[in-house]
Amino acid sequence: MVVFKVSRVQTSPFDGQKPGTSGLRKKVKVFVQPNYLHNFVQATFNALTAEKVRGATLVVSGDGRYFSKDAIQIITKMAAANGVRRVWVGQNGLLSTPAVSCVIRERVGPDGSKATGAFILTASHNPGGPHEDFGIKYNMENGGPAPEGITDKIYKNTTTITEYLIAEDLPDVDISALGVTNFTGPEGPFDVEVFDSATDYVKLMKSIFDFESIRKLLTSPKFSFCYDALHGVAGAYAKRIFVDELGAQENSLLNCVPKEDFGGGHPDPNLTYAKELVARMGLGNSETQGEPPEFGAAADGDADRNMILGKRFFVTPSDSVAIIAANAVEAIPYFSAGLKGVARSMPTSAALDVAAKHLNLKFFEVPTGWKFFGNLMDAGLCSICGEESFGTGSDHIREKDGIWAVLAWLSILAYKNKDKLQDKLVTVEDIVRNHWATYGRHYYTRYDYENVDAGAAKELMAYLVKLQSSLPEVNKIVKGVRSDVSNVVNADEFEYKDPVDGSISSHQGIRYLFEDGSRLIFRLSGTGSEGATIRLYIEQYEKDPSKTGRLSHEALAPLVDVALKLSKMQEYTGRSAPTVIT
Ligand code: G6P
Ligand code: ZN
User: Fold this and answer.
1) What pTM does this model have?
2) CA of 94 relative to ligand 2 center, distance in Å
3) Where is the Alpha-D-phosphohexomutase alpha/beta/alpha domain (predicted)?
4) Secondary structure (DSSP) of 509-551
């Protein structure tokens, strides 16, 4: 058995190791600097405290992007040196973010051990490869991202760090082969276990959904299906779940081989980046070959995001969570006893609010970032939640879950079509249009201005805050642009008081709220790695069922006009059009 020594290596701080909305994300060339990753990992161990780290069981894996394999070896050696008892690695270093959350909560090791936390190696939906992004974040014992109290400590530690611990002579572990490797260090045994990436997650999904009814749908000649993993880690789960368990055709999987650079693409499931799927589904301007499938979905790099499509039909993420919530009790066994409550992030449309009101459910509006849902879930206040940023999920884990969302939609389709599969199929589009007819429709769009000069973005935001002090002034501008848009009746910056721990998060987005329920929201992204990304969210509610069938961009044109002029978008950013519209 290999006996390793612990080295104390002198180091000094790097600027800017502040974790964002979802961990530390930087270009690979930043991460590969000597000591850069080491400093962040040691700062994390120090924030968790030595007592908690000693004897811990740590999961270390991610979406398989470039630099992950090296990072896993480095973190393993540092974990050994810091007294961690065992490290669990998904085969080939692959675990989706939701699977990590599941593994922390559910997996029991061969010796009865349970995980205490995880390093997730991902930059989510950002591109990967030697010239693109890498990322790392820490998740806690509940399976959710570290709370701000911890990430603030991590950051503080990165600014004062002087040394880190590493077992330099620990040999690299072969992460392609399943099994346990045993080592011994100064504090006793240290093991690395490589385990199958999908088993625990598949088991959890089978305990939530009625796989038999989904299988009937997926194998019916009336139904057709397509799933695009955009070469992210979702591919490691898609074949096991959709093909092996549920009987989908193998050729219904697109880009399902995980790649270190996501095949050179941008692994973000939206109408701009999921090009191949969008074309296959008969959407966009591209020529479609043959009849599009009835259902299509895509995932991002680490498989926590989802995009749901019907034949020639896009489901907005805001509608998706409302529709899942409205149908969950009937269609998904896990929820058959009822929902504890539902929640959405502030910029997400109010479609969920309306459904919650009809269904008499507890409802919460939280700032952007999944961690805010986790607190509600741990307190038993929330069963289903979602965000406009293509994240949907439930309290089965503490991360959003892309494949779960697809299974939720397939369950609803299976339920709506039960006994009817021989007649005309109830489609995704039918389900959405029926939902609008019952609850009204929230027309919704998001404009992203990516990689804008950070100073200019700050100035634009400051200007919008300043403008809020005089509503008459705001309304003069609004009416000057479009007289057919209603009045702004309230304007503020969103602030959230967590109902569970009482903590306050301020400056969570600039809101302009209109008399007819429309909203304009401006926010700076917390997940970019270069410059600033301005997000503009535009929403308008239509209750009249005879008016819910309009084209979204036509219905929203007046508000878009107002938003661009009100914010002086072009003046501040120099951009005449957004980078991405969703
Ligand atoms: C990550 C988080 C989400 C959040 C999103 C916001 O994906 O997990 O909870 O909605 O980032 O990203 P943004 O770029 O808008 O800050
Ligand atoms: Zn993601």
Assistant:
1) 0.94
2) 14
3) 17-164, 200-309, 318-421
4) -EEEEETTS-EEEEEE-SS-SSSEEEEEEEEEEE--GGGTTS-
Q: Which residue among 148, 266, 318, 370 has the greatest number of ligand 1 atoms within 8 angstroms of its CB, and so is best to mutate?
A: 370
* Percentage of the chain lying above the pLDDT 70 cut: 98
The pLDDT, as a whole number, for residue 560 is 96
Nearest-angstrom CA–CA distance, 30 and 59: 24
CA-closest residue to ligand 1 atom 4 = 369
DSSP code per residue over 245-293: IT---GGGEES-S--TTGGGS----STTT-HHHHHHTT-SSSPP-SSPP
* 348 Cα–ligand 1 center, Å: 12
Q: How many CB atoms lie within 10 A of CB 160?
A: 10
Which residue, by CA, sits nearest to atom 15 of ligand 1?
Answer: 525
Mean pLDDT value of segment 151-158: 96
Mutate to test the pocket of ligand 1, among 387, 390, 448, 522 (most ligand atoms within 8 A of CB): 387
Nearest CA to ligand 1 atom 3: 369
Neighbours of 549 (CB within 10 A): 12
User: Hey, how many other C-beta atoms are within 10 angstroms of the C-beta on 551?
Assistant: 9
Say how many Å lie between the CA of residue 339 and the centre of ligand 1: 25
Closest ligand 1 atom number to CA of residue 526: 16
Domains of the chain with CATH codes: 2-197 (3.40.120.10), 201-439 (3.40.120.10), 441-581 (3.30.310.50)
Mean pLDDT of the chain, nearest integer? 95
Per-residue model confidence (pLDDT) at position 484: 87
Ligand found nearest the CA of 348? 1
Report CA-CA distances (Å) from 495 to 58, 180, 365, 366, 510. 34, 48, 10, 9, 10
Query: What band does 290 get if pLDDT is binned at 50, 70 and 90?
Result: confident
Closest to 453 measured CA to CA, from 506, 567, 530: 530
Ligand 1, residues at Cβ distance < 6 Å: 21-22, 124, 345, 368-370, 387, 389, 391, 525-527, 535
Tens digit of pLDDT for each residue in 195-243? 999 999 999 999 999 999 999 999 999 999 999 999 999 999 999 999 9
Residue 486 designated active-site: no
Which SS3 state, helix, strand or coil, does residue 98 take?
helix
Q: Which of 217-221's residues contact partners 24+ apart within 8 Å by CB, and which partners? A: 217/410, 217/413, 217/414, 217/417, 217/421, 218/242, 218/246, 218/247, 218/248, 218/410, 219/247, 219/248, 220/421
Instruction: Write the residue with the smallest CA distance to atom 13 of ligand 1.
Output: 525
Q: Is the pLDDT of residue 404 over 80?
A: yes
Tens digits of per-residue pLDDT, 119-142? 999 999 999 999 999 999 999 999
Compute the distance from residue 236 Cα to the ligand 2 centre, in Å.
Answer: 15
Catalytic option among 22, 61, 68, 124: 124
Cβ contacts of 302 within 8 Å, gap of 6 or more: 62, 63, 96, 97, 120, 122, 124, 232, 233
What is the distance of C-alpha 194 from the center of its chain?
25
Q: Is the pLDDT of residue 288 over 70?
A: no
